[in-house]
Amino acid sequence: PSPLGPTPKLVIDLERLAQLPKEKAGALARYAATIQSQRGDYNGKVLSIRQEDLRSLAVIYDKSPAELTEELIGWGVLDAEARRAVETF
Ligand code: C2E
Ligand code: C2E
Ligand code: C2E
User: Fold this and answer.
1) Does the CB atom of residue 10 touch ligand 2 within 6 A?
2) Helix (H) or strand (E) holding 87
3) CB 25 within 8 A of CB 75
4) What domains are defined for the chain?
5) CB 85 within 8 A of CB 50
């Protein structure tokens, strides 16, 4: 087990996501909207996603999961804690 505790969750900031230009964040926004629709989870300010979904998103953005995580942290969509969630990939 990690000395820093359990693996943190990947939590998307939906309000921040909505502020970003479509050219950058459009694919992520559509992906998040699809998950919300599948769950029937429309009212949240944040959305917890699966690690597997970050892998899929990395393919879509043509980056490694670690590179995409850095980008999303830079955009303010993921918390810096998310770095630890992708270390285990
Ligand atoms: P499913 O994968 O067959 O999951 C059925 C139900 O099991 C989910 O219903 C949820 O209540 C529970 N569940 C499965 N995995 C987890 C998990 O890691 N954490 C939690 N808290 N619950 C889990 P729900 O939420 O209504 O989702 C219905 C279907 O929508 C899911 O069926 C899946 O096909 C899709 N879905 C929902 N959220 C996600 C997601 O974050 N990523 C992906 N890839 N699919 C999702
Ligand atoms: P947490 O996972 O740390 O989430 C904290 C709060 O962030 C949640 O409070 C909720 O307001 C928000 N949040 C996180 N992920 C999502 C999301 O995907 N959709 C939405 N709409 N909001 C989200 P909340 O709901 O009072 O839950 C408190 C704690 O209870 C959660 O802490 C978690 O530990 C647990 N919990 C709640 N629902 C589930 C669930 O479906 N599965 C599991 N395993 N734990 C849950
Ligand atoms: P969580 O609910 O606290 O679940 C943490 C981890 O436990 C998940 O990480 C997954 O590895 C495992 N897990 C929990 N429930 C199930 C399940 O029903 N089936 C399987 N096969 N594994 C399960 P993961 O997948 O990275 O998901 C991270 C977080 O994303 C979940 O935290 C939950 O907040 C959210 N999430 C993922 N899938 C769903 C879903 O289908 N529905 C909902 N409502 N939330 C989901």
Assistant:
1) no
2) helix 82-87
3) yes
4) 10-87 (1.10.10.1930)
5) no
- For 37-79, how does the pLDDT look when each residue is reduced to its tens digit (9 = 90+)? 999 999 999 999 999 999 999 999 999 999 999 999 999 999 9
Residue owning the nearest CA to atom 42 of ligand 2: 48
Residue 88: pLDDT above 90? no
**Residue with tokens 């998040």, as numbered in its chain:** 32
Query: Residue 36 — very low, low, confident or very high, per pLDDT cuts 50/70/90?
Result: very high
Q: How many CA atoms lie less than 13 Å away from 31 in the CB half-sphere?
A: 19
* Contact between 2 and 76 (Cβ < 8 Å): no
From the CA of 42, the nearest ligand is 2
